[in-house]
């Protein structure tokens, strides 16, 4: 029998995988006490059964888990049902009616198709020579996005997934859990104009290394979320938040295959995810 | 500017993606009331905030979620920490000590590396001409596995992920939620011998369309789980359960790129997942 | 110093307590796997931290809990907000508007005042010589209630809390968890006419030893709940369910002080409770 | 028929109740966002079903709840299983062994008998002329307790439940949720010596208006908990925390019947409670 690894492979995708790939993990570990918005149920984990609690007749033992959480905690994706404006969801549906029954049947997390698409990392602080990252409250403008795109030579195409690095992700593991959330300090990010710029490029989804894909002004908190409105309500572009982009940026990888498979939580407004940036070694 | 879709792509993986891919979704939707083992906390979802509950000054409104669940519900992967035998985990660590602190630091779900690997579907009922599926309680033997591998001409290689279809997945949506779990009827699946056969091929992970990767005899329930012991404890092979394999089988796709990114739930014994089978259209 | 136990006590209540009281526990233990309606999130408990997980510098260690549950599981009380009819709550408020914001501010569980009131046990099977209990699906009629009241010589007064024993509570610990819930068999209980009879006596609250204060016909499940409508929506009478009445009945105690303090769960539709029947030993 | 309210009542307790009672609610409302220790799963509530979601054939509709929480949140009682010292629980049992199986069978919350007992409020700030309350970090000493007992003329007896008011409860509703918890500021309370003094009086349970029945020094947090050790581990005295004592104190009620019925959460280390102080109007 010819060893399978030498067999000719008709599928070009599988052939590329066979040649070796580098996988960058863009998801944050979910752990009790991690920084998150107080607007959402906190992530908690416990082991109802541990090894040693109950041993089967054959010497076997199984441990298991109990989890409680919101869906907008940790690295996660927003379903289109997450935000409405003046009572309307993306596509115009009545937002109150859409939630009748306690789940969003039409635009819930279960309707997000798995993504296997070209991904682009816009490493804004690197292109702008902003050191470790953009300052708190800094608004990443269309000019910043265009300059980064050009500096990297990674033109954004329709259907792409664009990840905007602000550098704020370095605070995710800060001892003071409130620093990353930044409700008082503010957080850098794309504002309304940048969201329009991205949507005008026809992107399928956008991501950021911050808790919200927004520019949060110091002290303003989450009072208004214009980028969410533009992307989720007006343009139907998914948002991925609290991504881990440092390793990818350090490796200088600006273009890749992004694979993302949200949990199909029926009727939910979002899902925790572990997005992958994959590069063929070919 | 040259349109990105025409740009030459050095990355063979991305080039293959650019040529188009077919994505098969192997994850079941997570919904309240779906069949699951009573040994694990049931999946529940609720919307603490719906649209219309609170409207921001600019007309915006956000809805959000509250989830509670075990990690071995819906389509999920078992971490190596899930099962122990005679007090030992894979690698020999003391299973009780390993769980000290309420999380499995060494072999928990967060230690499962994302997978981008060759996947093989062993469509047993098709190869064995077993109609819609193997009967309740049927043990899929090494001979069955080898016959299926041969009939399909899909030799299993080291590092592959092998998905064994029994056909039982057609009951996932049965009106009687107890049918799929099959505690009284029994459930078809791979037994100890088949698990050894798979591990001997050097597979990285295995999957099934049943709630447990086991042959469950009628009335025996989950009293002993020999395939789990072989795979998780003795051989370090991950197990994926409650997969949706019907669409893939119907399409006759037996070889593909499998992408799986478990949630990095720190210290947990498993994670819900949405595995993807991806095929390049090349 | 005069020993406190001999001190004269001005408060007649405390004086009675000092003379000794018998306390009957009318609440069921809450444990994982107990029978409950599938319409509500199941009760689950886990220990995130156990002794030995983390020991403080002084040798101390604390264990703690994680709970998830509905509020209509175990022994519980229904807030008036639990049920509406034709879109109206008790008092006429619009039921949809009342829940805006994800909590019932006006008629939620937090609005149930603690109860220290005369309680009456109507031991129907005993008065009707129905052996261990009324048969499945049996409707306890106004005549049954009146006959029991008379046989016991416990006239019901305005403001009382009346507990109606059907005998069905003996199935709470049945090995088959579905027996107590009785969705297919039916469950005995007070129907619409009996609910009117009780409300006409001006009772403050009613209780039962069944999962619902209703007569459930075989196979009908919880499709319509007329006693709930009469009591909660039309008359403002609280309902206590899944009570443990066997010990009280066995002791032949038909009149007592009932103390009930629902958890003030802000905006919830009910609360788990542990009602007490207290009798002075005089 | 003689109206029940005029009927002679043989039960002195019920007779006292019939004469009228004043009920003081010593439990805090449970609401999302209330102050609590970060060591415990936060209280969260959601309505999976609201009125209007699903209307039955007869026009009826039921709303229901989903709760997740620790047991040491809101007003709660500590079971004896909550704390161990040098690996031993109250009575000497091995603390690790006692939790085998994920529940404390012997000393869990379900083993706390309902309480109908004499209660004494020691209003320390009033007796000590400490204005609104004891200062942050102040240790309430045995002398303080004795002075308060004497000033009030409420000698403490064996079997009593003694509630120690520090005045700190006025911060429970403070806009800054961290003030009540006081991890940095410190919190006033009974220390080791006071705990011994109380236990030496043979009390059955003690309570406080703070998140922990301890004197917390500024910045020390919950690093060591000597009063817990004395009471729970050495003396078998229950602890009630986060009580609402302001109304009772304002009314000048120092002696009463205390009724407390913890939820019988099988195997848990504590339970939320709504304790009542009841006074006969006699």
UniProtKB/TrEMBL annotation, chains A, B, C, D:
GO terms for molecular function: arylformamidase activity. InterPro entries: KFase/CYL (IPR007325), KFase_sf (IPR037175). Transmembrane segments: none annotated. GO terms for biological process: L-tryptophan catabolic process to kynurenine. It comes from the Bacteria. Gene3D superfamilies: Putative cyclase. This is Cyclase. The lineage of its organism: Bacteria, Bacillati, Actinomycetota, Actinomycetes, Micromonosporales.
């Amino acid at each position: 029998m010819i060893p399978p690894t030498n067999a000719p492979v008709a599928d070009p995708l599988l052939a590329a995988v066979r040649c070796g790939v580098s996988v960058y993990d863009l998801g944050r570990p979910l752990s009790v006490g991690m920084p998150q918005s107080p607007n959402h149920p906190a992530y908690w984990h416990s082991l109802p059964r541990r090894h040693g609690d109950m041993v089967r007749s054959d010497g076997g033992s199984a441990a298991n888990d109990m989890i409680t959480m919101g869906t907008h905690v940790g690295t996660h994706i927003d379903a289109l049902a997450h935000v409405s404006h003046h009572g309307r969801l993306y596509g115009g549906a009545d937002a109150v009616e859409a939630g009748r029954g306690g789940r969003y049947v039409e635009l819930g997390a279960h309707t997000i198709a798995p993504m296997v698409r070209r991904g682009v990392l816009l490493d804004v602080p690197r292109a702008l020579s902003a050191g470790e990252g953009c300052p708190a409250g800094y608004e990443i403008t269309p000019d910043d996005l265009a300059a980064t795109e050009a500096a990297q030579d990674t033109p954004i195409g329709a259907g792409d997934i664009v990840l905007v690095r602000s550098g704020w992700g370095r605070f995710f593991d800060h001892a003071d859990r409130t620093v990353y959330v930044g409700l008082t300090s503010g957080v850098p990010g794309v504002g309304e104009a940048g969201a329009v710029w991205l949507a005008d490029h026809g992107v399928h989804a956008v991501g950021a290394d911050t808790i919200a894909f927004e520019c949060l002004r110091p002290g303003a908190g989450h009072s208004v979320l214009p980028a969410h409105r533009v992307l989720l309500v007006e343009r139907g572009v998914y948002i991925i938040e609290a991504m881990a982009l440092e390793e990818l940026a350090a490796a200088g990888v600006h273009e890749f295959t992004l694979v993302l498979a949200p949990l199909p939580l029926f009727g939910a407004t979002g899902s925790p995810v572990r997005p992958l940036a994959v590069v063929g070694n070919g």
